[in-house]
Design a protein that fits this description.
The structure is a homodimer.
Chain A lengths: L12 H8 L3 H8 L7 H13 L6 H8 L4 E6 L5 H16 L3 E6 L4 H13 L4 E4 L7 H8 L4 E4 L13 E5 L1 H14 L5 E4 L6 H16 L9 E2 L5 H7 L12 E4 L2 H13 L9 E6 L2 H5 L5 E4 L2 H18 L6 E4 L2 E3 L16
Parallel strand pairs in A: 1-2, 1-3, 3-4, 4-5, 5-11, 6-7, 6-8, 8-9, 9-10
Antiparallel strand pairs in A: 10-12
The structure holds a DNA duplex (16 and 16 nucleotides).
Chain lengths: ~350, ~350
Amino acid sequence: MPTTLATERRVTITDIAAACGVSRATVSLVLRDSPLVRDETRSRVQAELARQNYVYHRGAANLRRRASNAVALVLNDLSNPFFAEFAGGADAVLAEAGYVMLLGSTGESPERQQAVLASMIEHDPAAIILSPAEHSSHERLRQVLARVPTLVFNRAIGDGGAGHDWDFLALDNRHGARIATEHLIALGHRAIAFFGGHRDSSSCCERRAGYRDALAAAGLVADPHWLVECAPTRLEAASRTHALFARDPAPTAAVCYNDAVALGLLAGLAACGRRAGADFGVVGFDDIPEASVATPPLTTVATNPRERGMQAARLVLERLQGKGGPPRSTVAPARLVVRASSLGSPGQSQGKP
Amino acid sequence: MPTTLATERRVTITDIAAACGVSRATVSLVLRDSPLVRDETRSRVQAELARQNYVYHRGAANLRRRASNAVALVLNDLSNPFFAEFAGGADAVLAEAGYVMLLGSTGESPERQQAVLASMIEHDPAAIILSPAEHSSHERLRQVLARVPTLVFNRAIGDGGAGHDWDFLALDNRHGARIATEHLIALGHRAIAFFGGHRDSSSCCERRAGYRDALAAAGLVADPHWLVECAPTRLEAASRTHALFARDPAPTAAVCYNDAVALGLLAGLAACGRRAGADFGVVGFDDIPEASVATPPLTTVATNPRERGMQAARLVLERLQGKGGPPRSTVAPARLVVRASSLGSPGQSQGKP
DNA sequence: CTGAAAGCGCTTACAG
DNA sequence: CTGAAAGCGCTTACAG
């Protein structure tokens, strides 16, 4: 029994109006719940709407009203649980407020980002939430984002973010990395590495700054060899683990750029016979779901991506209500979650100066 | 320096036409790359489009053409990595084909599902991909989905799915559970539980059927006490672990409804002093990212959610090209990924009959 | 309280 | 090769 697909003509307010013997204007008023319509008329129209299974065409209404109730979310990568949670949180708030979510992902490519944004914008979103790809060009983004209220999330745009044209929701990278580092110092570590990330990414810079803050406050100074870059993936991190121990003095613990790197480091340590949490202290960043089930469970800095998504959506909604006003920056707090991976005792290692 | 928001009037084809001294029709033809336009005219128009930073209003065009280039994706829960990966895969294929993705989530609530679908449909998507909430009503879905080509993913709708009105993409639950069970049998297990899920969900039924198939083929019969229900979450599973050992004969291994349940079981086993992989064999279902980093690494049935998302999107695109034809069902293959959690030796346990 | 009319930004026959 | 006109489905002053 073949299904009937979208072949039949659409039911419009004209059909309803004709069936009820009223004008299209009246039907429209009923749809928008206007008090101008007499009760008896309203009921008749509503009954007919239901009978014909009428579906409101919001696109047509939005065109006429020059409004939009879509918000576009453009992310780097949905398969990253951090962004998936973020999207889930944003969706919950937006749906609650009656908005629909357009979703796109850039795969961390500035070119795809331009294409995706251009495509989104043709659909006339009321606002855009953008977690920018690394190496995004401020100029090219300005071009395509002109006219659409935008909230940038997670990292500042290319050239530093001074003179930002957009609202900005940042993680407290600097403070988060600082408390992570302080935690390792409190455990007795003195030789602490910063592992992973690329130093040209703003979040990596900020986290490194927090790391240095903590060291400086404790009167420690970082050996340059303790700053090890690598792509923020588990695999890369595992294969770069050896770089931490290439020279003396080797570190006894590491603050990692994020959890993916930290999980890779856990694997890398195991592969070279070191026990994370016993021989070597590890702290991650993000608190992704895998962190708590890793071996050993990963101490990390929680950024609560779902909360961030909700917060981003709320900031956007405020902007849409209030209009106007200069761009605002908001910094979301970070919190340390202590688990087994950081309970190493530095004395067992040779890393002490 | 306050940003200029979407306050200025929009640039339309009328503006471009006026600036070039041509008609709006000509501008439209240029936009759609029609060969009807003379080269010289085309260049002039294109230059003006760029100069004024013109943005195509796809909503208006779609209204006029009675077309749509949006596809709606309605999922249970984005923070479930299975669905996040699925969405990522679908997005990649849809974006490639020039479609934009509307995303909504239902949180497994049939009421929210109705509301979300209704809201989506008002935006006139070309098609819908729906991973239905449990206990969805076939009738209510029919009502709201009338007229929109729909692909149902992951589970059949409420009353069994006979006389399905929609395309359907299923995981091979039955075969997947069967190979999982056969694997445990091959390792020497004879007392094998099926742990987790609710028996009124179709995927749970199918997986249990595959489990029974394997037992029957090996001449084994399941003790009814080995069928333990629980919500498909890690926490629930951990706290229900004791139910497996409440009566003799206790099982020596378990096929789990999914990875979340299996991870909870790993934790539950550890909490009651049993070593998964040594004292007790565990197999999951899904191969979520956490599976490979669990302790011990989780043997599981891979369903490749990203691939499924891409497949779902392709099926939808085919339907949109081809139109017509009866609804089709597709079953995606499942594959066993062997890791440490299933290497238990049943002889160490008391569970043998 | 209700209707006639104009218009949102675009496309598409139809003439010329 | 280009333009005038009608129309997609809706909303909103404006009369009455």
